[in-house]
Amino acid sequence: MRLLYTFGIRFFSFVVAFASFFNEKAKLLHSGRKEVWQKLSALKSESSVVWIHCASLGEFEQGRPVIEALKEKVPGKKILLTFFSPSGYEVRKNYDLADVVCYLPADTPRNARKFLSVVQPEEVFFVKYEFWPNFFNELSTRHIPLYSVSAIFREKQIFFRWYGRWFKKALGAVTRFYVQDETSGDLLHRIGLDNYEVAGDTRFDRVTAIVDAATDVPVAAQFAENARLVIVAGSTWPPDEDILVRYINQAPEGVRMIVAPHEVHEGHIREIEQKLKIPFFRFTRMENANVADSRVMIVDTIGLLSAIYRYGHVAWIGGGFGKGIHNTLEAATYGMPVLFGPAFHKFKEARDLIEWGGGFSVDNYDDFFSLVEKFRNNETQRRESGKAAGSYVKSMCGATRMIMKQVFGVDGD
Questions:
Q1: CA dist., res. 353 & res. 290, Å (int)
Q2: What is the domain-level CATH number for residue 307?
Q3: Which domain holds residue 175?
């Protein structure tokens, strides 16, 4: 099986090399892997190296709290950060808390031996879904501690199939799994792996840290003051905005809305403005605005959304009428009901929020109208739903602290 798997990896590398002539993502991966060995030369052999591997940008946000805690609590460690996907590497290749950032070489036995001989890591962390058998085997052979962080397992994965024995064996190289939920732990137990902790998701630690560090946004505070209901709509797309604008155009005076669209170019902002039939203003033009009499505030810049959620009573998360919803956690952290469209099923936190009673999916305008009106007219129910959302986030925090304590013997707070 190992020979067949390795052949498949090499064939994939060949396909990437061929595709690099006409596909930009393949070109980035192919050329990036060529630079790996040169980049690794920056790691001195006498250094104490911690290697953290992420598939892409989402997994990086889960590995990031561990990196930040390491730099603060164990500053003598050097950090090697690797990515599989160009979409992660290209965005974070200059991440300042990592000493070296590079691609993960193709998962062949030769690359694994060479890579580990150069890096000589003392600890290794693979984030979420990343399981590479040849690297895992070599780490086990060299007795290098390997930790799976924010791991999540599903019954349909190959490890739990009758034909997945070889892949299941690869999991035996992991020193400890820090899984997100009990289901993942139960699945590991079923195949004889009890070296796990139900730790939650390190991304929740990252989100709460962002919220704790968020600065005040005075104009948002002024806009929300004395409103009966403030809806903060984050990362919206046109299908979201059609519903939101239709509602706010006919909503009672006491309802106000803050809209932070996913795309903030001039053309899109004007499209939103043209749909509005009530007073509004743009964040970047607040000096000339009558904030007190406006009903809608359009956030036509980026970087403020996580701080602005605090001024809302209900959150709407965009993307649910397209490929999938955006980040629900920043809003939920503030303890408010979180609403989104129907494309949420592949996002665990959205499913969990619904189960806890803090998240709500709507299929159309009528669903949205009924739900928002219920929250507008029943403050007790709105507060209970918001409390459920906040409680869910708190229940998932603490993974970074657990990892730092168990692996490095330090307090991760």
A1: 37
A2: 3.40.50.2000
A3: 2-200+398-408
